[in-house]
Specification:
Length: about 475
C-alpha cells in the first residue's frame, strides 16, 4: 500500500498509540510493523521510479495522439483504396526491409500502417511504421513502432524506462523487485491501519506527524486494492516470477493458445518474403485475404501478417484490446484464399482471458481514457504515500516523543501454531516470486547482523573500565 510505516515503530512503544487489535492480529502486529517499515524504506526508491514512469506512461496514450497527429490521422475521403495500392505506395517511399505486417485504416479518419522489419537503424525488436492515407495513398511519414499496442517513439521510450530503465534484461530486475514488494507493503499497511483504534485514524484536527500518518494511512487504505492489482498483473510478465506463472498456467492447461499458420504444403513459390520481394503480397493478395477475414467476422482493427515461408499462411488478427476485447484470429491459405484455421478469443481458457484483461487494464488500454485516468490517480497516490512515508520517518527522528522503534525479535512473540505455517507460506511465495524471497532473506540477514553488533556494543559499554 505504501512505502513507509502506516504506524511508526516509535508510536507503537507508547501506551496509548497501539490500538486494541483483534486477538488474531495482536501477536503479528509488531512483526508486520517492522516488515512494513523496513521494506517501505528500502524498496521505496524502486517504487518511486515505477510510479513516476507509470504516471507518464498512462498519459502517453493521449499525448502521442497530439504529437503524431499528422501521421496517425487523415482527412476523411470518399472511398478507401485497395490495401495493395497502399502498401505499394509505402514500399515506393521506403523500399528498405520487408513488410512484416499491415494494419489497415481502422477508422474513417485514421491512416493505414505498413510495418517494415529488417530496416537499418531500427531496433530489432521494433518495426518501422509507414503511415499511408487510405484515400489517396499519400505517405504521411514513418515512425518506429513497438509492441502489440502500436506504441510510437514517445510512448515506447517511456514504456522501456518504466519496464527496465532502458538497461535491457538487467534493468527489468528493478521493476520486478518493485512489483514483488508492492503487494506485501500494501497488504501489511492495510492490516496495520485497520488494526488501529478508529480515533487514531482521523486526519482532521491533527497536526505534525500524526496528521502525516493519517493522510498516509487513509489514502493508502483507499488505494490498496489498486496496488494489489498492479503488483499481481505486473508480475505476470516479469522475468522470473512471470516465468513461474507461465509454467503454472501451462501445467493447468490455461496457457494462451496460438493459431496454426501452417498450410501443410508448398504454395508454388507464392510463400515467403523472398518470393514477394518483401512487399507482403503472396498468392491471392492482401485484399482477398482481408475479405476472407471479414467473412469470418473479424472487424476493425486488424493486423495482416504475411506468410513466413512457402508452407505458411497469412494470419489476420484483431488487435483491439479495449472493451469489448477483439482478439480473434484466422489463418488463410495464400494460394486459394481459404481459411485454414480459426481461433476465437471466446475459446481462450479462463486464466488466459484474465491474464489478457489484467495486462490490458494495467497498461491502460482496456477502458481507454477512463482506464488511463485511474492509473494516473493510482500512481500519483503511490508517489504521495512514499513522500509522506519518508516525511514520517524524518519527523520521528526529529521528535523523540514518539519513542523507540519496535525492538528486534518480534517474531519470537508469535505463537508456534501461527509462526510455523507463516514461515511455510513465505517460503512457497519466495520460491514463486524469487526477487521477493531473496531480498526478504537479505533483510533478515542484515537485521540479524545489525542486532548482533548492537548487542555486542551494549555489552561492551556495560563492562567496567580497567
Amino acid at each position: 500500500m505504501s512505502t513507509a510505516p502506516t504506524t511508526s515503530p516509535a508510536e507503537a512503544s507508547q501506551p496509548d498509540a497501539l490500538a486494541p487489535s483483534p486477538r488474531r492480529w495482536a501477536p503479528l502486529r509488531p512483526l508486520i510493523l517492522r516488515l512494513h517499515f523496513y521494506a517501505g524504506v528500502l524498496v521505496a526508491p524502486f517504487l518511486l521510479v515505477a510510479a513516476a514512469t507509470g504516471f507518464l506512461y498512462a498519459g502517453a496514450f493521449q499525448a502521442e495522439k497530439f504529437v503524431y497527429a499528422h501521421e496517425m490521422y487523415v482527412p476523411v475521403g470518399d472511398e478507401k483504396l485497395p490495401i495493395t495500392e497502399q502498401v505499394a505506395a509505402a514500399r515506393k517511399a521506403h523500399p528498405e526491409g520487408t513488410v512484416s505486417a499491415v494494419r489497415p485504416s481502422p477508422a474513417d479518419d485514421e491512416s493505414t500502417r505498413v510495418l517494415l522489419s529488417g530496416v537499418k537503424g531500427v531496433d530489432a525488436d521494433h518495426k518501422l511504421a509507414v503511415f499511408v492515407d487510405p484515400y489517396t495513398a499519400e505517405v504521411r511519414g514513418a515512425l518506429e513502432q513497438y509492441g502489440s499496442t502500436g506504441a510510437l517513439p514517445l510512448r515506447t521510450w517511456i514504456d522501456e524506462f518504466h519496464r527496465d530503465l532502458r538497461l535491457g534484461e538487467t534493468g527489468r530486475l528493478y521493476s520486478e523487485l518493485a512489483a514483488s514488494w508492492l503487494w506485501v507493503i500494501a497488504a501489511g499497511g492495510l492490516v496495520l491501519w485497520f488494526s488501529r483504534r478508529r480515533a487514531l485514524r482521523k486526519v482532521r484536527g491533527t497536526s505534525g506527524r500524526r496528521r502525516t500518518l493519517g493522510l498516509h494511512g487513509t489514502v493508502g487504505a483507499w488505494a490498496a486494492l489498486g496496488f494489489l492489482f498492479l503488483s499481481a498483473t505486473g508480475l505476470t510478465w516479469s522475468t522470473y516470477a512471470g516465468a513461474n506463472i507461465d509454467e503454472l498456467r501451462t501445467s493447468l492447461r490455461q496457457a494462451t493458445p496460438s493459431i496454426s499458420a501452417s498450410t501443410g504444403g508448398e504454395h508454388g513459390g507464392h510463400g515467403g518474403a523472398a518470393a514477394s520481394g518483401g512487399s507482403g503480397e503472396h498468392g491471392v493478395g492482401l485484399d482477398k485475404v482481408l475479405a476472407a477475414a471479414r467473412a469470418e467476422g473479424l472487424g476493425d482493427p486488424v493486423e495482416i501478417v504475411p506468410p513466413a515461408d512457402a508452407s505458411s499462411a497469412y494470419v489476420v488478427s484483431q488487435v483491439q484490446r479495449s472493451w469489448p476485447t477483439k482478439q480473434d484470429s484466422v489463418a488463410i491459405d495464400p494460394a486459394t484464399g481459404e481459411v485454414t484455421d480459426v481461433l476465437r478469443f471466446a475459446d481462450y481458457p479462463v486464466l488466459a482471458k484474465l491474464t489478457r484483461w489484467g495486462i490490458d487494464l494495467h497498461t491502460g488500454v482496456l477502458f481507454g481514457l477512463a482506464n488511463q485516468i485511474l492509473l494516473m490517480g493510482l500512481t500519483l497516490s503511490l508517489i504521495l504515500l512514499i513522500v509522506w512515508g519518508y516525511r514520517m520517518w524524518w519527523q520521528r527522528g526529529r521528535d523523540s516523543a514518539f519513542g523507540r522503534p519496535i525492538p528486534r525479535g518480534a517474531w519470537q512473540q508469535v505463537p508456534p501454531q501461527i509462526l510455523v505455517p507463516l514461515v511455510a507460506v513465505v517460503a512457497v511465495i519466495g520460491y514463486f516470486v524469487p526477487l521477493l524471497g531473496i531480498s526478504l532473506a537479505a533483510f533478515v540477514v542484515v537485521d540479524v547482523i545489525l542486532g548482533e553488533v548492537a548487542h555486542r556494543r551494549g555489552r561492551a559499554a556495560k563492562q567496567p573500565s580497567s
